[in-house]
């Protein structure tokens, strides 16, 4: 399968794209080309990063940009997942050896999750990757990254438990275990895949920095001083799913409905938000343990310093 030297990154200015570029550069193993949309808000990348403007609606524009690239890492935004169709077509045509399409979430192979409308674009892209790999078995391959929930003071903790405002909607009793992964560990996973091509070919890799529950996060916040003033509501992810399906079918594709589906997927038991078997060791993920989780809870409680 050879080695990977030239890596094109899509969505490099995004939430998970930025740590991925930083980690790949830190390894000093890769030459990084960032693909970005014409007129997109530009981020200042280090000078060794090559930046190319592309048109995601044009396979030929992408194929030209991908000439000479060994791998494509996509951190495309959730709302633009289907734009990766031309990216996968172009990557296969340009002779790219490995593509990591934008997943970074739950187990999209989970049969329950696979029925949820918001995951269909990601599933369609993975199926296209499977098709291209079957057509070019000696050259093209893919890996998806399944990290379940992001774990960051500025994102997940607001979504799952807002420890700064001391409020949470407790789902399914609050003791359902889910995996949560830091941006740094997701970025390391990309580097791990690109240096373990054989072991990661044509499959998802499953990672987790720490496994936790909503009630554990609240308990940690209480230990850290947030003892009183909690505003807790309670819901059932089955009810959220039922309402979301009804509203989605009626044309309501709002963020509120998307969040209901995501909550079902993250926290619903057996829905693909908890991985009993992980690829952490293969990919160099050490995990953060409970003390690392406590540090993130502390940072989230002290969010003024981050805002
Ligand atoms: N598991 C979790 O908890 C979790 C949480 C959030 C996100 N995610 C997943 O992580 C992946 C990346 O999400 P993110 O939040 O990091 O992405 P993001 O910051 O919202 O956007 C990433 C990049 O996508 C590019 N892009 C290209 N075409 C676009 C279009 N038409 N509209 C908007 N952006 C476009 C933009 O780069 P250019 O402007 O340079 O083209 C943008 O910087 C997605 O698959 C998402 O579902 C998972």
UniProtKB/TrEMBL annotation:
Pfam families: NmrA (PF05368). Keywords: NADP, Oxidoreductase. The keyword Ribonucleoprotein does not apply. One of its GO terms (molecular function) is oxidoreductase activity. Signal peptide: none annotated. It comes from the Eukaryota. Residues 5-221 form the NmrA-like domain. This is NmrA-like domain-containing protein.
């Amino acid at each position: 399968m050879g080695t990977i030297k030239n890596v094109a990154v899509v969505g490099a200015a995004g939430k998970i794209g930025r740590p991925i570029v930083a980690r790949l550069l830190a390894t000093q193993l890769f030459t990084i080309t960032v693909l970005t949309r014409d007129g997109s808000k530009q981020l200042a990348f280090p000078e060794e990063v090559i930046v190319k403007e592309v048109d995601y609606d044009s396979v030929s524009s992408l194929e030209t940009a991908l000439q000479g690239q060994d791998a494509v890492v996509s951190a495309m935004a959730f709302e633009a997942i289907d734009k990766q169709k031309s990216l996968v077509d172009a990557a296969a045509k340009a002779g790219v050896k490995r593509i990591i399409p934008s997943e970074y979430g739950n187990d999209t192979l989970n049969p329950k999750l696979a029925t949820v409308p918001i995951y269909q674009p990601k599933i369609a892209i993975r199926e296209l990757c499977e098709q291209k790999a079957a057509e070019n078995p000696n050259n093209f391959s893919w890996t998806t990254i399944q990290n379940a929930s992001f774990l960051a003071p500025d994102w997940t903790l607001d979504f799952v438990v807002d420890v700064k405002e001391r409020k949470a909607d407790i789902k399914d009793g609050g003791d359902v275990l889910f995996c949560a992964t830091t941006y740094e560990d997701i970025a390391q996973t990309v580097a791990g895949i690109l240096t373990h091509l054989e072991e990661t070919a044509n499959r998802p890799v499953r990672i987790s920095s720490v496994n936790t529950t909503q009630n554990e996060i609240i308990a940690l916040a209480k230990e850290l001083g947030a003892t009183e003033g909690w505003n807790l509501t309670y819901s059932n992810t089955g009810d959220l799913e039922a309402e979301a399906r009804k509203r989605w079918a009626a044309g309501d594709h709002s963020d509120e409905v998307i969040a209901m589906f995501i909550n079902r997927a993250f926290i619903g038991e057996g829905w693909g938000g908890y991985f009993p078997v992980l690829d952490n060791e293969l990919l160099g993920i050490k995990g953060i343990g409970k003390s690392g989780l406590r540090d993130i809870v502390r940072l989230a409680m002290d969010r003024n310093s981050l805002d």
